[in-house]
Amino acid sequence: MPEFKGGCLCGAIQYEVTGKPVNMWNCHCTDCQKSSGASYATNVFVKVPDLTITKGEPDKFQHQADSGNTMTKEYCSNCGSQLFNGNSGRPAIKVIRAGTIDDPSFVVPRANIYASRALPAAIEGTEIPTFDEMPPDPSVFFSS
User: Fold this and answer.
1) Considering the entire predicted model, what is its pTM?
2) In terms of Cα–Cα distance, which of 73, 64, 19 is closest to 43?
């Protein structure tokens, strides 16, 4: 029984996740702004073995992050929806864009990161921890 399911805008790519997310946060970095086309990206972190693509196959785009790690963006070549991110520095984790989840009512971010790059008013009124860059120890936001 999946924990949750999701897919792209046109339905060509669908997925399901069997385990609980290990982290959720709002990322305000420039890469997330540009790749999502939004002020920030709400990211849901899952263990790679817990994610199964049940329909279609996403295309991939790779780029280097500020950290030097290789980031892999996975998206639908038909509708352009970005569904997943991979980070060479964290190969056991896959990031799911929260907007692609069919019922995202469980999504409650634990922090805002890269707030120093946030667009005006993007984090006003938030009550979760906010960091100007990556937190000193981001592992505190991950559950096992």
Assistant:
1) 0.85
2) 73
Using 50, 70 and 90 to split pLDDT, how confident is the model at 131?
Answer: confident
pLDDT tens track for 27-48: 999 999 999 999 999 999 999 9
Tell me, what amino acid is at 1? Answer: M
Helix (H) or strand (E) holding 14: strand 14-17
**Residue 22 has which token pair?**
């290990």
**What residue type is assigned to position 105 of the chain?**
S
Going 34 to 86 to 75 to 8, the CA torsion angle's sign is negative
Q: For residue 41, how many other CB atoms are within 10 A of its CB?
A: 23
Q: Which domains does the chain have, with CATH numbers?
A: 4-121 (2.170.150.70)
C-alpha torsion 29→124→99→81, nearest 10:
-40
CA 119 to chain centre: 18
